[in-house]
Design brief:
about 150 residues, mainly alpha, 2 domains, two-stranded antiparallel sheet, 7 helices, 2 strands, about 65% helix
Length: about 150
């Protein structure tokens, strides 16, 4: 045996089969990746699971924008783990429930009644808009931008 043949025997094989790669990536059958050969390249077979198709409300969209612009690492982690959509729907649901509760509390504290609505509708609208702005500011601080 000459030197060239000996050195070739000691070198690892540069060609791997798709079966060898999938076995090397994970010993766990649940996490085993499969590959599709496309020319000289092995492309992993990746797919997303089915997600819900209910629309995301105002607060869910605001949370998504905040995460995308100010917390990109968390945003990407939620996307890759397929937890972004459930997170946004939960934030939206919680924010709407909190808004209803806060509006009830604030209207009672400020004496906003149906009598005021009948007597002075413009004052009632002005007061309700102010109270809603207060409630939304609280929600944005506690839920959306945290």
């Amino acid at each position: 045996m000459n030197k060239n043949e000996a050195s070739k025997q000691n070198e690892p094989s540069s060609q791997s089969s798709p079966n060898n790669l999938s076995k090397q990536n994970s010993p766990n059958e649940k996490n085993e990746l499969t590959y599709t050969q496309n020319g000289d390249y092995l492309i992993p077979d990746l797919s997303l699971s089915e997600t819900q198709t209910t629309p995301i409300g105002k607060y869910g969209r605001m949370r998504r924008t905040y995460l995308k612009e100010h917390r990109p690492i968390l945003y990407n982690r939620l996307i890759l783990s397929e937890k972004l959509y459930p997170h946004l729907t939960e934030i939206d649901r919680t924010a709407n429930e909190r808004l209803e509760r806060l509006m009830d509390e604030l209207t009672k504290q400020n004496g906003v009644t149906e009598k005021l609505k009948a007597d002075d509708p413009m004052e009632w609208v002005r007061t309700m808009n102010s109270l809603k702005a207060q409630a939304e500011e609280t929600i944005l601080t506690e839920l959306i931008f945290s």
